Amino acid sequence: MKKLVMIAGGPSHGPGAHEYRAGSLLLARCLADVPDLEVEVHGDGWVTDDAILDSADAVVMYTDGGARHPLLVGDRLEVIGRLTARGAGFGLMHWAVELPVDRGAPQVDAWMGGHYEDQVSCNPMWDARFQQLPEHPVTRGIAPFETHDEWYFNIRSGGDALTNEALTRDGSRVIPILVATPTDATRQGPYVWPHGPYPGIVSASGRAEPLLWAIDRVDGGRGFGLTGGHFHANWGRDAFRTTVLNALVWLTGTEVPRGGIASTVSPDDLARDLDPKG
Prior knowledge:
This protein is an alpha/beta fold. Helix content is about 20%, strand content about 20%. The longest helix is centred in the C-terminal third of the chain and has 14 residues, at about 240-250.
């Protein structure tokens, strides 16, 4: 039996956006029939007791990020560091991939291969087309697809841009999974905040950008980062949802089925557990 702990952030943004709790609970329901996998969802940005994490095979955070990232409270970086040192998987989704470059980012790069850097990475709303998918357990059952989201890009890894190549960082293998090429108009902005454009983003015209990546760490653990996940409605898109479900299962060390994790989501499912936002 494997144990996945999903940590959801509190209310953030307007209705239908950053629905961390509702999204995490929806994904957990979709995983309910996966053999030998237990999924727990904890809200408000952290678990009620750090001891809950002692038996976790993987931890995923879907929360706010930046300077108020839940990982930066107290000794939580050290708590996750101890988990990953024993080989537990670790993943961050959407805003949670943003960490200050001088605190949190170096650890996250080691645990999951990359992070969003304020005013170096960018966060426009755009249509990402995933036309070529690598052969990997996370892509099982997935055909090329397109999704409109706040897809962050120019993700940083060890001080460099995470590019569309398999990379080695301290002996760990970083594998881009969902890769898309922003148009020049997307690169020129506006970004959500700050609006840009940033010269480093514009000058990289034509470069393919990893938007979901995975890592096989030298300690035997796994990690992944997902930059999308802004719009709650996108969990209703089969290809996007299945990709993330595959990533969650893979993160724990559980075998992903050949056809991917099967699930169905109805409009009623999407309407459940939404944060009270008026």
